[in-house]
């Protein structure tokens, strides 16, 4: 399950910027990891032939995109087929087949994918953990040091080796600076599901657990400059943004999520999201707040970290 650094070929591709598109047409479907009717998304394990012809794993996330207001009239007018399904009194339902240019599917590819990526998207039961500071030091920290997702993609953004043209705002200060980019989860076509992330320039802060009063200027910059940049670029005021950190994150390089308040973003639930303004207040009240209090998070049934907590009778 160890992920370690991204394979060399992947790093070179990423460093070189966008290369040839992933060969979606030659994917062999292995299994559907998760299929969410509510999110209108399928998470799929597929394989493509690697450089020596051997099958290599990929994760594909296929999502139906939200409607755009300016396209709705065209969608109703220019459909290629319309089938009446049922009619009852004043109610009726139809199958409407849109023309190809209005039936976009957002496809996100992780390739080559590790076993840990496959696990991340596999639907499983979840359990709540209440992690004390001692648990963090004795169980979680050694675990995340031994195995966590590669953060090469973060360094590529910070070093302008990838996504440089997507940067919305940058504060280059090595200690209190950050880069704001659209999150992979957002296709930028509509504001309803607006989603950006701020990645800090410094590389020594893994997560919420590392934060102390020393980081207040950095966090204030992210809050103020991030809100201002989003207002300027997208016209969305700070009062309509949900600005938060995840605990546990998937990637242990501190980052802050900015999502549209009206969007029920994955991971914005009470057991994972910590509002940035609350984090600031907590650190003002007590510089060592996050090295003292217990934090709650959910883990999927077969995650090795859950096993570690079970071994010492903490679950
Ligand atoms: P997280 O809290 O560490 O984990 O957030 P999560 O993925 O379980 O939410 C990391 C965020 O970075 C997520 O919102 C991802 O969608 C986003 N993300 C991940 N990758 C690999 C990339 C990337 O390469 N580029 C961009 N722009 N966003 C990414």
TrEMBL record:
GO BP terms in the entry: deadenylation-dependent decapping of nuclear-transcribed mRNA; mRNA processing; RNA splicing
Alphabetized UniProt keyword annotations: Acetylation, Cytoplasm, Hydrolase, mRNA processing, mRNA splicing, Nucleus, Phosphoprotein
Residues that bind substrate: 153, 163, 183, 185, 246-257
A GO term from the CC aspect: nucleus
Enzyme class, broadest EC rank: hydrolase
Main location: cytoplasm
Residues at the active site: 255 (nucleophile)
Keyword GTP-binding attached: no
GO molecular function: 5'-(N(7)-methyl 5'-triphosphoguanosine)-[mRNA] diphosphatase activity; RNA 7-methylguanosine cap binding
Pfam family, one: DcpS_C
Keyword Nucleus: yes
Assembly and oligomerization: Homodimer. Associates with components of the exosome multienzyme ribonuclease complex, such as EXOSC3 and EXOSC4. Interacts with NDOR1.
Protein family per UniProt: Belongs to the HIT family.
EC number(s) on file: 3.6.1.59
Catalysed reaction, written as an equation: a 5'-end (N(7)-methyl 5'-triphosphoguanosine)-ribonucleoside in mRNA + H2O = N(7)-methyl-GMP + a 5'-end diphospho-ribonucleoside in mRNA + 2 H(+)
Subcellular location field: Cytoplasm; Nucleus
Disordered, as annotated region: 1-24
Known function: Decapping scavenger enzyme that catalyzes the cleavage of a residual cap structure following the degradation of mRNAs by the 3'->5' exosome-mediated mRNA decay pathway.
Family matches, as InterPro entries: DcpS/DCS2, Histidine_triad_CS, HIT-like_sf, Scavenger_mRNA_decap_enz_N
Record protein name field: m7GpppX diphosphatase
Domain of life the protein comes from: Eukaryota
């Amino acid at each position: 399950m160890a992920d370690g650094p991204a394979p060399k070929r992947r790093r070179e591709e990423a460093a070189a910027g966008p290369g040839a598109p992933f060969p979606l047409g030659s994917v062999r479907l292995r299994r559907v990891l998760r299929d969410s009717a509510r999110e209108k998304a399928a998470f799929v394990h597929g394989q493509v032939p690697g450089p020596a012809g051997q099958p290599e794993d990929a994760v594909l996330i296929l999502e139906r995109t939200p409607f755009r207001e300016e396209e709705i009239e065209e969608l109703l007018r220019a459909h290629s087929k319309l089938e009446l399904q049922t009619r009852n009194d004043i109610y009726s339902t139809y199958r409407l087949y849109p023309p190809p240019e209005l039936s976009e599917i957002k496809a996100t590819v992780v390739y080559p994918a590790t076993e840990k990526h496959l696990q991340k998207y596999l639907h499983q039961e979840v359990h709540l953990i209440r992690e004390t500071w001692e648990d963090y030091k004795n169980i979680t920290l050694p675990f995340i040091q031994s195995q966590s997702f590669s953060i090469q993609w973060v360094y590529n953004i910070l070093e302008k080796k990838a996504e440089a043209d997507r940067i919305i705002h940058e504060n280059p200060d090595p200690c209190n600076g950050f880069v704001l980019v659209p999150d992979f989860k957002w296709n930028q076509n509509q504001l309803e599901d607006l989603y950006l992330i701020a990645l800090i320039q410094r590389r020594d802060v893994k997560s919420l657990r590392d934060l102390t009063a020393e980081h207040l200027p950095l966090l204030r910059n992210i809050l103020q400059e991030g809100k201002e940049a989003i207002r300027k670029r997208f016209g969305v005021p700070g009062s309509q943004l949900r600005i938060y950190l995840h605990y546990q994150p998937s990637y242990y390089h501190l980052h802050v999520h900015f999502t549209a308040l009206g969007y029920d973003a994955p991971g914005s639930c009470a057991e994972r999201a910590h509002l940035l303004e609350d984090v600031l207040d907590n650190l003002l009240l007590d510089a060592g707040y996050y090295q003292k209090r217990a934090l709650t998070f959910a883990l999927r049934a077969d995650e090795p970290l859950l096993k570690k907590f079970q071994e010492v009778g903490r679950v």
